[in-house]
Amino acid sequence: MRFPLPPRPPRGLPWRGLALSLLWLPAVAMAAAGARGGPGQPPAASTGGHDPCTEFVARLPNVKAPLCAAAQLKPTVGRSFQGRTLYARDVVAPEARIRVLVIGAMHGDELSSASVALHWIQRALETPSNAHWRFIPALNPDGLMVRPATRMNARGVDLNRNFPTPNWARDAKVYWEKRTRKDPRRWPGPSPLSEPESRYLHDEMERFQPDLIVSIHAPYGVLDFDGPGVPPPQLGRLYLDQVGIFPGSLGNYGGVHKGMPVVTIELPSALRTPLDAEVRQMWLDLLRWMSERIVPGESAGQAVPVKAKKTG
Question: Do 216 and 173 share a domain, yes or no?
Fold first, then answer.
């Protein structure tokens, strides 16, 4: 950063020049602090004036430049804690009847989830079924782009524990302290929706009103489901294993308390994507299940009985 030179001292009045210089120095210090983000402020980061594929192709497994370019990601109003733009892509079938929201990389160290989301954009362009798709490939770009990648966002919050489930203030704190023994990777944050990334997704759910949410994670190699309706028995080689809910999780908030079915895909590896044929089969299985089980508007607002999580 370049700063202006101090004012030239007037001739014959050196004391006045010194005073002006003393006034100028704090201004320069404040400008420098602003460039760094300032005390207590997030440091400066990318704000969307560039092609996101530059970072995605360099960082994500099995993502080549042509695939990312074809996704034609668009900047949204969402920003990360460090100021990175959140990107999305809508793919709308000619006779779209349902709305589906697909989310990748809510946890930054699950790189394969963002990759699969980008691959599925290409699948949606080829076979959109009867859906209006909205893809958010990387909800947590700060955690994704830092090296090493982190589960949490740049403020150290697990975004998948930051949604406003009932009794969050009590349950999220107790769960974190007692069940996880204050595991920093699972800190739910100081309050629900304290993070810009979770607030953006929360607001996007209100704007978009999806009939289905698909949240892609890794690396447990299973399929989970929360909300009303009949869950998919399998997607590709991933089989259903419903193990309950967490305080502040998206499945708990969206599926149980908002009545929006949430399919959680746990890929087998956080660093490697499944083979392309497997990614395609998962997509086809999802379309088949959607055509049989997802009816537009049928599940909106239906509360679902809450079940406790059996594992931590």
Answer: yes
